[in-house]
Amino acid sequence: MSERTVSLDIQGMSCTSCAQSITDALDALDGISDTTINFATDEGTVTYDPERVSLAEIYQAVDDAGYRALRESVSIGIVDMTCANCAETNQQALERAPGVIRAEVNFATDEAQVEYNPAEISVNELYDAIEDAGYTPIRETESDADGQSEQDRREAARTAEIRKQLRLTLFGAVLSAPLVFFLVERFLFGGGILPESILGIEFGWVEFVLATPVQAVLGWQFYENSYKALAKNRRANMDVLIALGSSTAYLYSVAVLLGLVAGGLYFDTAALILVFITLGNYLEARSKGQAGKALRTLLEMGADTATLVEADGTEREVKVRPGEKIPTDGVVIEGQSAVDESMITGESVPVEKSESDEVVGATINENGVLVVEATKVGSETALQQIVQLVKDAQSRQPEIQNLADRISAYFVPAVILNAVIWASVWYLFPEALAGLVNALPLWGLVTGGPAIAGGTVTVFEFAIIVFASAVLIACPCALGLATPAATMVGTTLGAQNGVLFHRCTRSRRGTNRDQRWDRCCGRRRPTGSA
After folding, report:
1. CA–CA separation, 306 vs 232, rounded Å?
2. Is the whole-model pTM more than 0.70?
């Protein structure tokens, strides 16, 4: 890869010695070919080899030298992710973009947390990087024409996904119900109830008519995602496994029905695989929505309305009547009352407030009337900062989740290779393997094994069964969802009960030392080692 040149806006320099200190710190990194730091303009340019040193390491070197290079952070909602591999693909796409310092993509929250150099890349270019990877970012604006906020659009996208998966599941279930009956009739009643043909048409064509719409409609999302993964990103994800397994069963059955090969029909297997996986997608999407519900509850703690005293653009004063929530952080300029601050401090006893006392938004005025001058609004308020703290903790993955994502990245190719190997081995050495399996206690072969070993199906058909089974049974969707979903719920419920995590690494390391926050004195008190 060719060298890159990055421009840095550096804060904290006071003389030329500061510029030289930063230059020395950057030149010490392996992969830096040229460094120019200008004290007069508070700017610098660094030429580096991205194969040997990352932009994050360059920024860290500036920080370690005692200065700070300007950076910004943004949270981007992403639609269409179906597994941890999708999150990894988006993360790599963002990290490859020039100007991105670091990126973390969370499959459970459908969000990317990106730290970037605003002098090198814009938010719109980050959106483009996600789209180039084959996914859909939720573009953030102040509001849409219909008044929807960016958070509202994320919620709408998640709700739409839940409804979509539910519709697909019901569609597939209706068409697959007769196929389930055919399975029951075949295996429990010996296949003597249903005729072999209807009006001269083989019964297999009835199964074909039922299974084909399921394969086309439910399977389309897996085919589309598989194409994006393989063609655009050159990597296999969980959708590839599902598409491979269901297509193998369906296409083999079509070949048998047309008389191209000898064997049995597996239309029921192909259809039911897609129905069950789609049902799993629906439950997964719903669990994401329920995990995010706790954070929405935290947001709803704020006041919905405020009574303005003046609205001349210079003073922002609100009147808070007894029983109302204080709408924003501010200072009491008139009145006296007791305020319930338990949602912030945890103290159940109301605190007396009078003129010049500070009040916090979302706390409850108990008895008197207060006139409050707003000092902080919007994202500056204590409640919104708590919400942002929780969001940051949720978007940053703990090490155990990073491990799970790394495993998932190699898992799919390993599963496909394993399926091909064992299907080939069974095709080449059916008698030897059948004898080995039959010698094991409590083990048996599907359909009794290949015909050459005393079973009921051909060797080729049995190899197909082995391949499809190995691919389908290995889909580890829970591996990529369990940890981030638990993090979402845990950090939000913790915030509602006064426990905040700044980063997920704290939750993992929290057993090393027990620390409590003294809410009365505002000090952190170590209480011993765990």
Report:
1. 51
2. no
